[in-house]
Here is the input.
Amino acid sequence: MTAQNLAIEKTPLERYVAPEKPSLVGLSREGLGEALTALEVPAAQVKMRVQQLWHWIYVRGVTSFETMTSVSKDLRATLAEHHTLARPEVVAEQISADGTRKWLLRLPGEHAGENPHEVECVYIPEIDRGTLCLSSQVGCTLNCSFCHTGTQRLVRNLTAGEIVGQIMIARDRLGDWNASAETTRKVSNIVMMGMGEPLYNFEAVRDALLVAQDGDGLGISRRRITLSTSGVVPMIPRAGEEIGVMLAVSLHAVRDELRNELVPLNRKYPIKQLLEACRNYPGVSNARRITFEYVMLKGINDSIADAKELVRLLKGIPAKINLIPFNPWPGTRYECSDWEQIEKFSQVVFDAGYASPVRTPRGRDILAACGQLKSATEKLSARERLALRAMAMTD
Ligand code: SAH
Ligand code: SF4
Here is the structure.
């Protein structure tokens, strides 16, 4: 089996023109209300119109105002004159042999005349769920030494609309509108584990995830949404209070000295402070555990002593431990731990009472796995191209 590649009406970068009319996709109820008020919809009607738009946009997934038959014809025309229902532009779709899909999305630059940006969004189907991995930023400022996204130079925050837009695109392309129950939906779960540090773009991520969890709209319950952070300690309580989603923490090391190197943000918020914030995470309980992500780096953080220290550190915190095989990228200085070592490590964790699933890498053939997401707008260096070719040949 081979992966499929599909370029979708790819506009050359030099001809790209950012959309002029603002899209209503991604707006909260308040945002829709403001848009309607600006179009001079009488105040007494705004609430009812918002309900209608909400349903058409987030339950039915329509892409034109024309289809909104319960909305008056005049209002439909006014809406179409001033707004669109556009999602971020999909410039390529790749389908892995294992069913994982990756979409490359093009977003307008932040300032007029600036080149557009690109981000990725990945869909991972499993037997009992379908998980959509969303990006929160173009690139990332945090430079974790093992992460490809962190090497990207361009960085900008995504808007709430662009984050919700990724869910809309997945539902569009998977034919996932109008599914009756949460369990029969193709996109049943969301993880904020794509490009970027979600807690460095807090407001937009919060607004987007509140839209996503609205029971009368996209309807993805907060138990099925996980936000992954590299450890922005001051924002962790706010994530619990204001978004209420499940928390995942990229721990990756059990000593500050090593974590400073792998996750440089650790110099600002060391392990002790990070774990304290986890202990106090609003709503944390044995039924709502925090996931600790731990990337397996050969000879760096994968010793049995590290495993023992890991379970010692997490004592008293309702936790799950997720061991992630390192996904190599061209030019990285790290290697993934040997399988045998991962098993030994995982046994220590298991013996301490934690289920310790090792995350199976998905979509490797389309570079869709964790930490491999990086904008394609960036030119690869000759060295990177050579390394990529070598990787493709040995796969
Ligand atoms: N910025 C957030 C969320 C995005 S990264 C964070 O760091 O948590 C999602 C997960 O992928 C994190 O746990 C991150 O550490 C991990 N990751 C990054 N690069 C990786 C790589 N090359 N191999 C495996 N996991 C990686
Ligand atoms: Fe940013 Fe997360 Fe990558 Fe670190 S691991 S550079 S925080 S995306």
